[in-house]
Amino acid sequence: MIYIMFYMVAVFIIIYIILYLVLMYVGIKEWNKGVCPKCGKPWAFYYSSNNGDVTYVCEKGHICNISNKIINRMFMKSKKED
Q1: Beta-carbon neighbour count of residue 67 at 10 Å?
Q2: What are phi and psi of 48, to 5 degrees?
């Protein structure tokens, strides 16, 4: 019985990690190293919500919603270097 519960917890943790990595990949792909994939213009900060999600917009008006804190830190770091 204990082994079954252990395996269920292990499977849940593995599924959670895989889901996190997939969502991080999607966010990084949308972020595209700070450049809009549709027009090639750089993203600019637009809006930050209370839960930590940040919205960026390019000069052409394309929108990028990022909820990943790692990507947000990369953007802030790149803006400080400019």
Answers
A1: 14
A2: -125, 130
Q: Residue 73: which pLDDT band, with cuts at 50, 70 and 90?
A: low
CA pair distance 57, 66, nearest whole angstrom:
11
| Residues in Cβ contact with 54 at an 8 Å cutoff, skipping those fewer than 6 apart | 45, 47, 48, 65, 66, 67, 72, 75
Of 2, 7, 1, 66, residue with least CA distance to 34? 66
User: 62 is written with which tokens?
Assistant: 């394309």
Q: Looking at residues 47-64, what average pLDDT do you find?
A: 86
Question: What letter does residue 52 receive in the DSSP assignment?
Answer: S
Q: How far apart are the C-alpha atoms of 72 and 52, rounded to whole Å?
A: 9
What value does the mean pLDDT of the chain take?
82
